[in-house]
Amino acid sequence: MAKLWERKQWITDVPVILNNNIYEYDIRAANVNMLYAYGIISSGEFYNYLNMDKHIREVSIGLLQKRQKEQTGTNTIGKLINDGIKECKRMLFEANGIEDSNVVRVASDAVYVISECPYPITTVVLNNHPVVFKVKGPYRSMLKLNNVVVFFSLLADAYDVDVKGINDNFVHLHSDFLSFLCQIIDCMEHGDRDGTMRIFKEYYEAYINKDLPINHYREFNSSSCFRLINSNVGTMYIDQSIIDLIDISYNNFILRELYRIILTM
Q: What is the pTM of this model?
């Protein structure tokens, strides 16, 4: 067994998963729960942290670790948080009999697993403190393009996407490209290889000829920037009028990767 619950970051080698139920199990307020379970904070501090905005809470706990390191030269708080999260994931795996072969992704405090329905046990007990895994999904398909993973779920007659590898604040900048990926996934889910290839080729030709709206040329990665030809400097915003100056090689690489995936249908 690979013991994937031990991993802080892991993703399957499979580039695409279609027509499956993929559920995400995410520890609710993971850092705070670990600190409380190990007696680092009091019950009053615990509830105070829980009532904070998520970003403010994370910054506050980061400052707590920073102060400890400045005062003692160690970061035992960070180690306890990591050890506690790992132990909670282990208990989730064992309580539900999760096999490594069904795991799609492991993040710092979350796991993504293929299963017919949600697992029944989503609360584990760490040092007499209950830790809850929030269940999200099901996602029905997954597509991995280089360092970005996109999970697709169908809401009514439209797709919803959850993108990993790009900052949540930047995902909306890729809405045009993500709409194209939803078209591709829809065709792939229905086993229509000819239709999938037709959509891809029409898009690819327009992409290469720079006939698409400017946001299609934003690099589909964590930087989410535009890059000019013969320049390593990225910019977040650029005008359509200078589209001929944009380096399109990165997304061209992504599209060739997608083409190889389509060929495996």
A: 0.91
> For residue 138, is the peptide bond before it cis, meaning its omega torsion is within 30 degrees of 0?
yes
CA angle 213, 214, 220 (to 5 degrees): 110
Are 182 and 174 spatial neighbours (Cβ–Cβ below 8 Å)? no
Please give the span between the terminal C-alpha atoms of the chain, in angstroms, as a whole number: 29
Measured distance CA(159)–CA(109) in Å, rounded: 26
Cα 254 to Cα 76, 91, 182: the distances in Å are 41, 37, 15
The torsion angles phi and psi of 115, rounded to 5 degrees, stand at -160, 155
The residue to which tokens 């790992």 are assigned: 86
21 burial (CB, 10 Å; 0-12 / 13-18 / 19+) is: middle
Burial call 137-150: b when 16+ CB within 10 Å, e when fewer? bbbbbbbbbeebbb
Q: Which letter does DSSP use for residue 191 in this model?
A: T
Return phi, psi of residue 155, to 5°: -115, 115
Per residue in 38-68, pLDDT (tens digit) is 999 999 999 999 999 989 999 999 998 999 8
Cα gap 226→237, rounded to integer Å: 7
